[in-house]
Automatic annotation (TrEMBL):
<dbReference type="GO" id="GO:0071978">
    <property type="term" value="P:bacterial-type flagellum-dependent swarming motility"/>
</dbReference>
<feature type="domain" description="Flagellar basal body rod protein N-terminal">
    <location>
        <begin position="5"/>
        <end position="35"/>
    </location>
</feature>
<keyword id="KW-0282">Flagellum</keyword>
<dbReference type="InterPro" id="IPR001444">
    <property type="entry name" value="Flag_bb_rod_N"/>
</dbReference>
<dbReference type="Pfam" id="PF00460">
    <property type="entry name" value="Flg_bb_rod"/>
</dbReference>
<keyword id="KW-0969">Cilium</keyword>
<keyword id="KW-0966">Cell projection</keyword>
<dbReference type="InterPro" id="IPR053967">
    <property type="entry name" value="LlgE_F_G-like_D1"/>
</dbReference>
<dbReference type="GO" id="GO:0009425">
    <property type="term" value="C:bacterial-type flagellum basal body"/>
</dbReference>
<protein>
    <submittedName>
        <fullName>Flagellar biosynthesis protein FlgC</fullName>
    </submittedName>
</protein>
<keyword id="KW-0975">Bacterial flagellum</keyword>
<feature type="domain" description="Flagellar basal-body/hook protein C-terminal">
    <location>
        <begin position="219"/>
        <end position="261"/>
    </location>
</feature>
<feature type="domain" description="Flagellar hook protein FlgE/F/G-like D1">
    <location>
        <begin position="114"/>
        <end position="174"/>
    </location>
</feature>
<dbReference type="InterPro" id="IPR010930">
    <property type="entry name" value="Flg_bb/hook_C_dom"/>
</dbReference>
<dbReference type="Pfam" id="PF06429">
    <property type="entry name" value="Flg_bbr_C"/>
</dbReference>
<dbReference type="Pfam" id="PF22692">
    <property type="entry name" value="LlgE_F_G_D1"/>
</dbReference>
<dbReference type="InterPro" id="IPR037925">
    <property type="entry name" value="FlgE/F/G-like"/>
</dbReference>
């Protein structure tokens, strides 16, 4: 009986976590470069049930009791969210006409596990990676993210634009009247090894983009979120129904336990 409580409760907790992930995806449906999260749900290890007993075997002077076990079957002990995994497929490209908006096209490889990202520097001075090219220029003329993090060049220095008048070539060279600067781009061999952080950033290890990699940077455009809003809303409704189902099972167990305490044990 108590095992049923735990199984139903684990199902409710799992669907609650699922709802949180899906709600966060919906909240970021308009966030440029956002990668939708997916939950990996796993079952707890199954328990093998056996019938245990003993049999009497007659011998010459007395009976001997020999233990035996008969397999009954396996019993599932509930589910849990093992991990949350980002989906790195590329979102649609939308034209904005804004000079500081940069779309990294084909930065992810559908047939492989690698991907290309912009390199930025967070508030702690650490390298982070993003596909959100919704940049701007700060008061000092540096190209920065909307959070104020520096966009780095190939040498690991902040990109200096000197203002809003600049162009970016398809291979990532930022051109101004004073100089040309190669934007910092990092290649991650296995994007599944990246750790997703807040503000649409990823932590991990990246190397120089290999020569055989094909990509394109389009100025005045943005990669949109890859969240499928219709599919996500459908998943949210399914998750809510599963939560309610586990809730009803839990209530049924609770009523059964109540009867066991108040009625079955009553002395007439």
């Amino acid at each position: 009986m108590l095992r049923g409580f735990y199984t139903a409760a684990s199902g409710m907790i799992t669907q609650q976590r699922q709802q949180e992930v899906l709600a966060n995806n919906i909240a970021n449906v308009n966030t440029p470069g956002y990668k939708a999260d997916h939950t990996a749900v796993r079952a707890f290890p199954e328990m093998l049930l056996k019938e245990m007993g003993s049999k009497q075997i007659p011998i010459t002077t007395h009976h001997a009791n020999l233990p035996f076990q008969n397999p009954i079957g396996s019993l599932n002990t509930g589910v849990y969210v093992q991990e949350t995994v980002p989906n790195f497929t590329q979102g649609d490209i939308r034209q904005t006409g804004i000079t500081t908006d940069l779309a990294l096209i084909n930065g992810q490889f559908p047939d492989e596990t690698g991907g290309i990202f912009f390199i930025v520097q967070n508030a702690a001075g650490e390298l982070r990676y993003t596909t959100n090219g919704n940049f701007t220029v700060d008061g000092a003329g540096n190209l920065v993210t909307n959070q104020g993090y520096y966009v780095l060049d190939a040498a690991g220095n902040p990109v200096q634009t000197g203002g809003m008048e600049f162009t970016v070539t398809s291979n990532g060279i930022l051109q101004t009247a004073a100089q040309n600067t190669q934007l910092g781009l990092g290649y991650v061999a296995d994007v599944n090894q990246l750790v997703k952080e807040e503000e649409n950033l990823f932590a991990g290890e990246a190397v120089v983009v290999p020569a055989e990699a094909t990509f394109q940077i389009e100025q005045g455009a943005l990669e949109q979120s890859n969240v499928d809003s219709l599919q996500t809303m459908t998943q949210m409704m399914e998750s809510y129904r599963l939560f309610e189902t586990n809730q009803r099972v839990l209530r049924a167990y609770d009523e059964s336990m109540g009867k066991a305490v108040s009625e079955i044990g009553r002395i007439g």
